Amino acid sequence: MGPLRSVVLAGGGTGGHIYPLLAFADCLRRHDPSVRITCLGTPKGLENELIPPHGYDLRQIPAFQLPRSVNMALLRTPDRMVTSTRAAGKILDEVRADVVVGFGGYVSVPGYLAAWRREVPIVVHEVNVPPGVANRMGMRFTKYVAVGFPHQPQQAESLRDARVVGVPLRSSIAHLDRRAASAAARARFGLRPDLPVLFVSGGSQGARSINLAVAGAAKELSRAGVQVLHVIGARNEPVSIPNDLPVPYVTIPYLSQMELGYAAADLMLSRGGAMTVAEVAAIGLPTIYVPYPYSNQEQSRNAQPVVDAGGGLLVDDGEMTPAWVERTVIPLLRDPHRLAAMGYAAAGYGRRDGDEALLDFVYEAATHAGQ
Predict the structure, then answer these.
(1) What are the tens digits of pLDDT across the range 145-179?
(2) Residue-number span of the structural domain to which 145 is assigned
(3) Contacts of 33 (CB under 8 A, 6+ apart)
(4) Are the C-beta atoms of residues 292 and 207 closer than 8 Å to each other?
(5) Tens digit of pLDDT for each residue in 337-346?
(6) 257 occurs within a structural domain
(7) Binding residue positions for UDP-N-acetyl-alpha-D-glucosamine
(8) Which of 93, 153, 249, 259 is the most exposed place for a label (fewest CB within 10 A)?
(9) 126, 119, 125: which is closest to 98 by C-alpha?
């Protein structure tokens, strides 16, 4: 098979599915500006906000939601799945898809089913353990399964034969030189160049426990000379920060250019989403991970290998208090040698070439499918 002429990408619902999709689309476009890239989405999904501004064709198909358990009876029901799969199939036929690459989220399932029925090669990219429901469905129809982290095949039997390719990262992050970009990033937020910076972000929606703990420690952090850049989360209530702090404590509701926060920071405090772990490890940013507590522990599994490598710390959400922040963050930010060692360890675990490695895998799938 020659160069890919038409690629359909499916992934939506959360940034963890969409940002790798966008990074991979950019990689495709770099290698071949003429390749046709079509993205599948649902009418109300987050993909409608993120994909079109990047210049990619987003086609909407009817939304539906899978139950949490996967079995072959799902291929017969419900009616919404049939409707969505037919809509996806029409799009695949129209664009004459050479391959479908899915990143998870319910919108991936109609893409997988439509591709399987047309014998279009399928590649599944998964970043969590256990795999998400949509990708578990997709894995039934292809042997070409890629994962973002080395621990995944070791921890999930269904991923035992998956190819470890890394996570596609946005170019602005994959090529980030934190040291070179630090001064400009700090100036952007009104932060001083001569004092350490704690970057706090609970993800696109924020995290109440993290917000309250760090805000509650604001006075002690400031007295210790620690600056804070705090992304509250667009849907979270503003936190109360004293007005008379001696060093900057900057709060913002949302940050679309996370590379600026990464560049400004000496240390990050965040949730343990796969995308966050992949990004901060790749650029060598020491991070304190506070996994989301109301899930199947995938965020703990995401962060634990980086922590084991020496690239960060892991703390339970229930322990996240102002007192914990004061007794842990302040000494750490006063120890540049330890921070440097943590950053080096994180970078040794992370990788910046996930987009290129996934592209090689997609070419392999498109070339050898059916053989």
Answers:
(1) 999 999 999 999 999 999 999 999 999 999 999 99
(2) 6-169+352-368
(3) none
(4) yes
(5) 999 999 999 9
(6) yes
(7) 14-16, 128, 170, 204, 299
(8) 93
(9) 119
First and final CA of the chain: distance in angstroms? 12
- Strand (E) or helix (H) holding 267: strand 267-270
Could you tell me if 17 and 161 lie in one domain?
A: yes
CB half-sphere exposure, 78, CA atoms < 13 A: 7
27 and 150 co-located in one domain: yes
Element spanning 231, H or E: strand 227-231
d(CA 304, CA 277): 10
Residue with tokens 């006063």: 334
CATH number of the domain residue 226 falls in: 3.40.50.2000
Total domain count for the chain?
Answer: 2
Annotated binding residues, as ranges?
A: 14-16, 128, 170, 204, 299
Residues linked to residue 210 through DSSP beta bridges, in sequence order: none
Tokens linked to 261: 């926060």
In this structure, the answer to whether residues 342 and 360 fall within a common structural domain is no
- Report the side by side order of strands in the sheet with 312-314: 249-252, 227-231, 197-201, 267-270, 287-289, 312-314
Give the tokens for residue 94: 């129209």
